[in-house]
Structure formats: structure tokens, C-alpha cells
């Protein structure tokens, strides 16, 4: 490991303060209608937060990072612009953000171990790894009208035929920006800045009203 | 609402995602200490304002967040090409003026040649003549 970098576990298990997702207050203030609650029928769009995941920003040369990631995690770096690679069980993903920048998302408790192993493998290579887990959160959007909610909100072409599975872009969403991606046929993922999470959440509730949008609760209280 | 091709994202993206960042291809003097005030002032503060072809830096601010270059016609606002940082433009004012001149000569040679075929896009003869030699 490069000894000039100080690495520490941002999710220390002995913490005495309960972790709260960036949306914890929004759920109280704006409510969280259960799917099917508003319209009495099945919700055509459902959102759910996947809080406390590990988000790592990798910067550096594609070749050296790709090699390290294949070795440590077993998935390769997406080389094409605006693309997304998801591992076999769908828990870990790498997304192209710019020619020298990728976003790696893993289950929260793996973050520190992974960062340590990546650093050990990369040695003195000219790369940067930054843990941004605390700065952003992931909101999942699913349901038959999911893309219609997105069409109302973003300038990017989110027609399911154009925005294919395995695509991920950074684009405008309402008056803020999000990382928008499609890991599989049924789900869309929005990665939002912590400080904009409340705005995006309330925007989604409003935009999804006509589709009887509901908030899935199960993925919410993933304890640290 | 129009689309701009980002050479890094390799696709057309909405104009709202971009920011203009001023004139491109301004080389920093190799030895700033050896510059006199006028040279340094020109480098820091003075920018071209051509009528016609202009090379500009733009930033894909919401997106890949990379700078790139755009060749734009300031008369018609048409974007003629976009290219990565460190690359040279293939379309320049001289290049277009030369092309227009050839087209004009061909026209005088034969009345059959259709007008406007491979001419400068959106720029009139007069506009191109006025920028000819004014912008590198």
C-alpha cells in the first residue's frame, strides 16, 4: 500500500450514533406512501432507497485500474463511454463517468476492505480512490411507468429502447444533476448528491403522483 | 434546445449540460518572465471576437466534466465541429475561405455548378471575405 495515503474505515462498527440515510428526514416531512396506497390500485411506479452502500470514485488510467479491479473484484472496468458493468449477483457495479473516472458501488460493509485491497494491488500507480459513500445515495425506480416518470424529469433520452440495459449517464434531472443508470430490464437507478436527495425525492413523489407512485420500505432500514 | 456532440461521451447531448469557456488555442508564453507588459496583457486579457469561424472551449459541465473544443460560426451560430483538447481543428476560417474561392472559380468556369453545394455553411460570401485572414 502507498504509505503516503491515510486510509480509514468510515463505517466503523463501534460507532455509537445510529446512521441515518440522507432521506431520513424527508420520509418524516414528506411522507412515504406505500405502493398502492395513494390510488388504491397497483402503483405503476415504485421508488426505494438503497442507503448505506459503498460508493468509491476511481480515477486514473483505464488499463491499470481495470487490471486491479479484475484481480480484486472479478469485474472489469467498462471502457465505453456511458456504460455500466454489473457483477453476477447484481450487488457490485462499475460505471464509466468520464475518460479517467469510474464509480464503483459495493455493499457498504465491503467498502473499506475493497479499498484497502485495491490500494495494495495498485501500489504506487498514479491513481486516486475516494470513498464518497457519505456524499450520495442511491434511489431505485421501478414499475411499468418508471420511464414515464423519468421522461418528465430529465432531458436525456430515457426511452427504454434507446436507454438500454447497461447504460449509465450523468445528466440533468429536474433542476439538479443525477447519475442515471439501468442495471437491468426492470430497474432504474438514480444516484443523487446527499444535499439534493430531499429535492429529488419530493420531485419524484410529485412527478409520480399520476402513476400512483409508492415508496418501497424494505430496502430502507439496512442497518450498519 | 439543441444538441452538442461531446467528443468524450461520444454522443449528442442536450445543450443545457454544457458551458462555454471562451476562446481556445491560447498558448501560455513559454517564458512569462521574458514577456513585456503588452505581451503578457494580451495573453491574459485580450480575446478575438471574429465574425464567422471561431474556435472555443466548452465544458461538459453536467456529464463527463471535460473541456473540449468547438468550431462555431458566430454569424449563424452553427457548430461546425467538436474535437478533444490537444487536437487541432479541421475546419478553419482560411480553409473555408479557400473552399469558397474555389467554388466561385468553378462557378465562373461553368454555369452548371449548383450554388452552395460545398460552401461555408451559413456564411455569406461577404461574411467569409471579412473573416478571411482575420482569425487563425
Automatic annotation (TrEMBL), chain A:
Under the heading SUPFAM superfamilies, the entry gives:
Folate-binding domain
Q: Record's InterPro entries?
A: SoxG (IPR007375), SoxG_het (IPR006280), TrmE/GcvT-like (IPR027266)
Q: What is this protein called?
A: Sarcosine oxidase subunit gamma
Protein's organism: Chromohalobacter sarecensis
TrEMBL record, chain B:
Q: Which Pfam families match?
A: SoxD (PF04267)
Enumerate the residue ranges of region (Disordered): 97-136
Ranges of Basic and acidic residues composition bias in the record = 97-109
- What domain of life is recorded for the organism? Bacteria
Quote the NCBIfam families the UniProt record gives.
soxD
Q: What is this protein called?
A: Sarcosine oxidase subunit delta
Amino acid at each position: 500500500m502507498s504509505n503516503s495515503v491515510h486510509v480509514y474505515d468510515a463505517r466503523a462498527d463501534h460507532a455509537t450514533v445510529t446512521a441515518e440515510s440522507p432521506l431520513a428526514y424527508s420520509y418524516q416531512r414528506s411522507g412515504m406512501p406505500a405502493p398502492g396506497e395513494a390510488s388504491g390500485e397497483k402503483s405503476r411506479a415504485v421508488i426505494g432507497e438503497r442507503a448505506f452502500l459503498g460508493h468509491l470514485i476511481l480515477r486514473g488510467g483505464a488499463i491499470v485500474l481495470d487490471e486491479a479491479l479484475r484481480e480484486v473484484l472479478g469485474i472489469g472496468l467498462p471502457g465505453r463511454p456511458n456504460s455500466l458493468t454489473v457483477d453476477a449477483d447484481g450487488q457490485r457495479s462499475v460505471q464509466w463517468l468520464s475518460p479517467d473516472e469510474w464509480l464503483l458501488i459495493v455493499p457498504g460493509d465491503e467498502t473499506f476492505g475493497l479499498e484497502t485491497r485495491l490500494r495494495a494491488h495498485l501500489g504506487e500507480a498514479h491513481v486516486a480512490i475516494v470513498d464518497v459513500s457519505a456524499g450520495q445515495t442511491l434511489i431505485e425506480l421501478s414499475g411499468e411507468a418508471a420511464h414515464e416518470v423519468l421522461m418528465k424529469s430529465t432531458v436525456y433520452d430515457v426511452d427504454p429502447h434507446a436507454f438500454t440495459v447497461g447504460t449509465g449517464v450523468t445528466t440533468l434531472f429536474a433542476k439538479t444533476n443525477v447519475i442515471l443508470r439501468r442495471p437491468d430490464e426492470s430497474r432504474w437507478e438514480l444516484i443523487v448528491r446527499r444535499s439534493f436527495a430531499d429535492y429529488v425525492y419530493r420531485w419524484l413523489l410529485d412527478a409520480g403522483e399520476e402513476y400512483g407512485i409508492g415508496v418501497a420500505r424494505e430496502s430502507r432500514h439496512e442497518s450498519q | 434546445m439543441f444538441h452538442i456532440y461531446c467528443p468524450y461521451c461520444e454522443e449528442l447531448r442536450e445543450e443545457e449540460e454544457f458551458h462555454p469557456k471562451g476562446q481556445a488555442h491560447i498558448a501560455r508564453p513559454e517564458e512569462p518572465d521574458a514577456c513585456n507588459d503588452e505581451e503578457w496583457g494580451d495573453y491574459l486579457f485580450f480575446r478575438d471576437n471574429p465574425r464567422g469561424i471561431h474556435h472555443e472551449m466548452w465544458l461538459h459541465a453536467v456529464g463527463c466534466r471535460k473541456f473540449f473544443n468547438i468550431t462555431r460560426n458566430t454569424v449563424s451560430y452553427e457548430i461546425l465541429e467538436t474535437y478533444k483538447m490537444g487536437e487541432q481543428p479541421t475546419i478553419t476560417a482560411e480553409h473555408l475561405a479557400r473552399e469558397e474561392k474555389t467554388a466561385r472559380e468553378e462557378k465562373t468556369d461553368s454555369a452548371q455548378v449548383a450554388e452552395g453545394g460545398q460552401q461555408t455553411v451559413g456564411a455569406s460570401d461577404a461574411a467569409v471575405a471579412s473573416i478571411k485572414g482575420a482569425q487563425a
